[in-house]
Design goal:
Blueprint lengths: L17 E2 L15 E7 L11 E10 L2 E3 L11 E7 L6 E10 L8 E10 L18 E7 L4 E8 L6 E7 L12 E6 L15 H7 L3 E6 L1 H4 L8 H16 L3 E6 L4 E2 L2 E2 L9 H12 L8 E4 L9 H17 L6 E4 L18 H4 L16 E7 L21 H4 L2 H11 L3 E6 L5 H16 L4 E9 L18 H6 L14
Parallel strand pairs: 1-9, 2-10, 11-12, 11-20, 12-13, 13-16, 16-17, 17-18, 18-19, 19-20
Antiparallel strand pairs: 2-5, 3-6, 4-5, 6-7, 7-8, 9-10, 14-15
Length: 499
């Protein structure tokens, strides 16, 4: 059950609760003391402009039994009579409801929690808003999810015949782009030890800036602490984030961020206890909820390195085969050896060049995808003097020479020659003039070559940690990195419910 710690709702006009002077039209509101009416409206969740919201009974207690609480779709009948019934006197009772979008399935996007109560005893609920003790059902607690914006609980009617209306909006619907369809950021945290799960509360800011893609790094050992044993709680946390983000138009690049290793064992290497089949099994478990979700892209492994390039290819193929057998229709993202640098794609200092091993028709082994539905996935930073690196340096290459130093055109030419497309899932730099100019210059290059380059996600974002490369706002102030990125985005219109 995904229920936040309840927030006490004070039923006083002008405080947390808004009271309207005139109720909206409604069909036959009850005039009984044991009914509580809810109208759930004006939620924007999907492309139709409406969400079907469900009141999902999660728990209850007291001497009265919850009744009349079957889920009802809000867009079909926006009024729902929730009742607490009892034949006992004196009586008190409470029932807690999770408000969810689309269904009462555990993976359905969670909107918030409402607890209703009835009490004609002396003091079962203390100073809660169920007093005076007339037997009137009231809202005891109301706690919206942190990523729900502009949520209000409006009270209409009079004592003995109150009813309530939930109004608000979820995340803004993310921008859609015809050119470079994926533009966004890495929401880091779940690859840390211990993990710091990204928070959905960060998404409205990036949506309004015009981003529509989130790369979500996950450490393999966190979700599968021992081979064959998965942490269902962590998988559910990942699932909730993906469900809400994709419902609101975001693309999520689900990234296994483990460098082709499992507890430092190289996948598939001679003498390693970890096989490519282990990796395939992990991916089928992780990806199964999203196999037909075209807003989820599967980044099969972050930055393989210090191994044979041929082994990297050989490790991918069982994963691809297993996912396709399981029914995956998703784009698969394939990263190369040597930390998958764009600048080094055709170099061989790490072994056989990626440009050879991942070519459309290389010597075996080669990438085999029955759907031929995969993207090359590269990273690029700008550390001086030679480019590449990890973005942590205190100087970046000369912006006027950046494209040549980073071998950008060589990589694009390789894509053309092999009939392939690519995405840049990491690029970034510190708040240093050359680094900021390099970021903007490379994004411009991507836009100029959008026939083979499909998008980018900047490293890094997230309010749960700090980094000198972080593009998140600090104390309400826009970062220098976001200012450099902003010209490459189309911000959403002003207002809480842009469409």
């Amino acid at each position: 059950m995904r229920k936040p710690v309840p927030l006490l709702l004070l039923l006083a006009c002008g405080t947390f609760l808004s009271c309207a002077s005139a109720p909206p039209p409604r069909p036959g509101a009850p005039e009984t003391v044991n009914g509580l009416w809810f109208s759930i409206s004006n939620f924007l969740l999907d492309g139709s402009g409406n969400a079907t919201l469900y009141m999902c009974l999660s728990e209850g207690g007291g001497t009265a039994a919850p009744g009349g609480a079957a889920p009802a779709p809000a867009v079909v009948d926006p009024y729902k009579n929730l009742q607490l019934k009892t034949s006992m006197d004196p009586y008190y009772a409470w029932a807690s409801y999770n408000v969810q979008a689309g269904s009462c399935d555990p993976h359905a996007p969670y909107i918030g929690n409402v607890t209703i109560a009835v009490d004609n005893t002396t003091d079962q609920f203390g100073s809660a808003p169920c007093t005076p003790k007339t037997g009137q059902i009231c809202v005891y607690t109301f706690s919206p999810a942190p990523y729900v914006t502009g949520l209000q609980l409006l009270r209409y009617g009079t004592q003995g015949a109150y009813y309530y209306q939930l109004e608000g909006s979820l995340l803004p619907q993310a921008q859609t782009y015809s050119s470079l369809p994926y533009r966004g950021a890495n929401m880091a945290g779940f690859e840390f030890v211990p993990p710091l799960p990204p928070t959905l509360a960060d998404l409205p800011y990036f949506a309004r800036k015009g981003m529509n893609a989130i790369r979500y790094p996950v450490r393999w050992e966190t979700i599968e602490p021992s081979i064959g044993t998965f942490d269902e709680g962590d998988l559910a946390t990942i699932g909730q984030y993906i469900d809400v983000a994709t419902h609101n138009g975001f693309y999520v690049l689900l990234d296994l961020h483990s460098y082709m290793r499992y507890y430092d064992n190289v996948v598939g290497q001679a003498g390693s206890p970890i096989t490519a089949q282990n990796l395939a099994d992990a991916w089928v478990k992780l990806a199964t909820p999203y196999l037909t979700n075209d807003h989820v892209l599967l980044d099969l492994m972050n930055e393989p390195n210090t191994m044979a390039t041929e082994l990297v290819v050989a490790d991918y193929n069982p994963v691809i085969a297993a996912l396709r057998r399981a029914g995956a229709q998703n784009w698969l993202l394939i990263e190369g050896n040597g930390w998958s640098g764009m600048y080094s794609w055709t170099q061989n200092w790490y072994g056989t060049a990626n440009g050879i091993a991942f070519a459309a028709v290389p010597p075996p082994p080669r990438i085999v995808d029955p759907l031929n539905h995969y993207l090359i996935n590269v990273h690029e930073y700008f550390d001086a003097p030679g480019g590449g690196g990890g973005g942590g340096g205190d100087s970046c290459v000369d912006p006027s020479r950046m494209l040549a130093i980073e071998n950008a055109q060589i990589f694009v030419d390789w894509l053309h020659a092999n009939g392939l497309k690519a995405i840049l899932s990491e690029l970034g730099g510190k708040d240093i003039p050359n680094c900021l100019a390099d970021i903007s210059g490379l994004l411009t290059f991507l836009e100029q070559n959008d026939d083979v380059l499909v998008g980018w996600t900047v490293w890094v974002a997230g309010s749960q940690f700090t980094s000198p490369l972080d593009i998140s706002p600090v104390n309400g102030q826009e970062s220098a990195q976001m200012k450099a990125i902003a010209p490459h985005l189309t911000p959403l219109p002003a207002g809480p419910n842009p469409r």
